[in-house]
Amino acid sequence: MTSSGGEGHSLKVAIVVPTYNEAENLPLLITELIALDIAGLGFIVVDDGSPDGTGEIADDLAEEYEGLFEVIHRASKQGLGKSYIAGFTRALELGAERIVQMDADLSHPPVEVPEMLAALEDADIVVGSRYTKGGGVDPSWSFIRRQISYWGGVGIRLVLGLKIHDATSGFKAYRRAALETVDIHRLKLAGYGFQPEVAYRAQKAGLRVVEHPFTFLDRTAGKSKMSAGIAAEAIYRLILIRLRG
Ligand SMILES: Nc1nc2c(ncn2[C@@H]2O[C@H](COP(=O)(O)OP(=O)(O)OP(=O)(O)O)[C@@H](O)[C@H]2O)c(=O)[nH]1
Ligand SMILES: [Mg+2]
Predict the structure, then answer these.
(1) Which CATH number describes the domain made up of 13-244?
(2) Domains of the chain: which residue ranges?
(3) pTM score > 0.90 for this model?
(4) Whose CA is nearest to atom 21 of ligand 1?
């Protein structure tokens, strides 16, 4: 991928996608995003050595979309936060002006990306939000799952004093300067707590964070990597972060 100002494709919008066992989903996501014809679009996939071969599939896509696509291969599953940091660091190195993070499993609908980029004209960070007016979750979610997701988010908001309504959303668009201000290398939480910690740092730095409503769709292929243990550990660590400032 060429950095901005270089010859050939100039990267304006970098989509950073962490993957672990998303062999079926990743090609669909990329095809849908490319169809949207976003100017200066590029991809950075961060794969943690997926046993299902997602890393090789990403390499094939990088060949197919030469100049638009980079793959960062990490040897083992090191958690989502570290994957984002690696991807964001590369996006900044390549000169991206806008950086979008989204999941590979199509839970974050590609059609929202142009709208989030438009909203970024008047904001520093746009958070794809399930819990703001107009947002929602997949109709198939059980009552229990809805309650856990919603109240878990409310708990995290209270712990951190966050203004946004979807503290754990992994669907976000950043201006380059916002990521630089948040200083991703200073973040402490590598796993599930990464999203709330970014939101907290952004709010503390006085950045303009706005929410863009979207409906979170369930993955139709592949397996979830979430567990109650991961969530509980994140909440405990977020309490420590709030206490220490
Ligand atoms: N690189 C990397 N990617 C990961 C890791 N864990 C999850 N992912 C990816 O991060 C995104 C979100 O993970 P999911 O398993 O979908 O988690 P979730 O969206 O909270 O759970 P579901 O709603 O069940 O899908 C997906 O693109 C995963 O492939 C990891 O340790 N490393
Ligand atoms: Mg998912």
Answers:
(1) 3.90.550.10
(2) 13-244
(3) yes
(4) 224
Q: Look-up: residue for tokens 């839970």?
A: 107
pLDDT (tens digit per residue) in 127-151: 999 999 999 999 999 888 888 888 8
Q: What is the pLDDT of residues 31-57, one digit of tens each?
A: 999 999 999 999 999 999 999 999 999
How close is the Cα of 56 to the center of ligand 2, in Å? 21
Strand pairing class (98-101; 41-47): unpaired
Which ligand has the shortest distance to the CA of 223?
A: 1
Q: Are 120 and 175 in contact (CB under 8 A)?
A: yes
Q: What is the distance, to the nearest Å, from the Cα of residue 237 to the centroid of all Cα atoms in its chain? A: 20
